[in-house]
Design goal:
Blueprint (H helix, E strand, L loop, with lengths): L2 H12 L7 H11 L18 H18 L12 H10 L8 E10 L2 H6 L6 E3 L2 E13 L10 H4 L11 H10 L1 H17 E2 L2 E2 L1 H17 L12
Length: 229
């Protein structure tokens, strides 16, 4: 995970959006938030520095590819590329200034670390010799609760919403297909692509293939959302 490359990619995509306030938003993200360094979660997916940024780009790749797929192309054909960029990259903007760094004790079975540790610190269990190691963890410290604004962002958490909201969620998905598309892209990125501390190794091999594939199927005059800036 190359954070500097991710920052350039993120900003270059946002700069393609021709709407008032985009440059101010980019500057706000740069200077007043931890968006580029924050994790995407506390422990389950991309719970590492830069995880939120990587997750947002992963959502963009999944969502943009959906728009090019046979199943979703007609459904999303009236959704502007700008909207794809905005809902994907900013769907978790409410997580800025949300996580706090801390530490926790964790067992490590690393043979080199165990061998280098004082004997009094070496313990044993069914998995072998281990030592306790202090590692980084993330907790929640929400300094600026934003909530989710537009429909796709508001409902992108899908059926993790309270059951009493399921009728409203279903109606939103019916009236705004981008709600369902973004929700699926969020699940695909967090469950298929991302691991706790980075993208899965196999995903790093698959993603470039997915990124290149649409270029062979697109009309020559149709912009490819995966093109590097």
């Amino acid at each position: 995970m190359n954070n500097q490359n991710n920052i350039k990619r993120f900003e270059s995509l946002l700069e393609k959006v021709n709407r008032n306030g985009v440059s101010e938003l980019i500057n706000y993200i740069r200077t007043d938030t931890d968006f580029y360094s924050a994790p995407a979660s506390t422990q389950f997916h991309l719970a590492c520095e830069g995880g939120l940024l990587q997750h947002s780009l992963n959502i963009y790749y999944c969502l943009a590819f959906k728009k090019l797929s046979l199943m979703w192309n007609k459904v999303l054909e009236n959704i502007e590329d700008e909207s794809i960029i905005l809902v994907a990259l900013l769907h978790d903007l409410c997580k800025v200034n949300f996580y706090a760094k801390g530490t926790r004790n964790q067992k490590t079975y690393d043979e080199d670390k165990v061998a280098a540790a004082p004997k009094r610190d070496v313990k044993h269990d069914d998995m072998g010799d281990f030592i306790w190691e202090c590692v980084l963890k993330y907790g929640i410290d929400d300094k600026m609760p934003l909530g989710h604004g537009i429909m796709a962002i508001r409902w992108h958490m899908g059926f993790s919403e309270d059951k009493s909201l399921y009728p409203s969620l279903g109606k939103a998905m019916e009236e705004y297909p981008l709600v369902l598309a973004l929700h699926e892209a969020d699940l695909e990125a967090s469950k298929l692509i991302e691991a706790p501390f980075g993208n899965k190794a196999e995903a790093n091999n698959i993603l470039p293939e997915i990124v290149e594939r649409p270029a062979h199927n697109n009309d020559d005059n149709e912009p490819n959302p995966f093109d590097e800036p």
